[in-house]
Amino acid sequence: MRAAILTGPRQWVIKEVALPPILPGQVRVRLEGCGLCASNIVPWQGPDWMNFPTEAGALGHEGWGVIDEVAPDVASINVGDRVAALFHNSFAEYDTGPADAVIALPHSFAGKPFPGEPLGCAMNILARSDIVPGSYVAILGIGFLGALLTCLATQSGARVIALSRREASLALAREMGAIEIIRCENALSAISRVRDLTGGRMCERVIEATGRQAPLDLAGELICEGGRLVIAGYHQDGLRQVDMQKWNWKGIDVINAHERARQTYVRGVRQAISASQAGILPTERLYTHCYPLSDINTAFRAAATHADGFVKALVLM
């Protein structure tokens, strides 16, 4: 099979490698594609903790495709079933993993991309946010995840305030249902605007979806007393500082909305499938850039630089 191997900072190489073996309890998926996650960018850039070369297909964790082979002890899924896969080496033509880490896709999804992991992630973050109808919800960072959460929170009855540095992202947030969009060029003006919108109370829920220090700082300012601050961004490029005195004084709940239990991920993906069938998730609107596996370097550059109109890149096999 062909697989992408990260040989050094910002440098993918496509190589022919052996098919991954199937261990007991596992299945092999012939991948149709794999989403490019924003969390892939920092490892691709080559931080000190990253080791090169990577395993074949490494970093790819948003794959979907067709079951190619199953271990003799697997009866839960069949060869030929189309699935979303929660595997970790899916920047390749094939990937293997536990049978309970694939989720069958309905026939109505035939021919359509379905990177289940990030869609399930959005559903899990929504659940952890515990949004109350009529409440103000600030979402900082309107990429793929922030756009999905804007849509989901709006449909949950919240009044969403979207904050981003990019005009295109704010326009997308408006399209997804945000009642107000704020360009974060100046934190003080953003805080003032939210204070005006909420009658001085600030927001009952704040979702930080950037993985960066400055928006995390701003999130602490936008949350109201007794509110819930939800950290959805993946912070992996260094330590973070928080204004603990402010967090203490406001008496807020702080939720790390990242899940690790496989069954929680699977549940989220199944909920995402149901939401997509119901027309609740505007996913195809958000898949803005598609690249063949051979052009994975271009895909990563587009994601890192936010190419024109960029929201989400898919790498297709």
From TrEMBL:
InterPro entries: ADH-like_C, ADH-like_N, ADH_Zn_CS, ER, GroES-like_sf, NAD(P)-bd_dom_sf, Zn_alcohol_dh. Residues 8-315 form the Enoyl reductase (ER) domain. PROSITE patterns: ADH_ZINC. Keywords: Metal-binding, Oxidoreductase, Zinc. The keyword Oxidoreductase applies. Its cofactor is Zn(2+). Belongs to the zinc-containing alcohol dehydrogenase family. This is Zinc-binding dehydrogenase. It comes from Aquamicrobium soli.
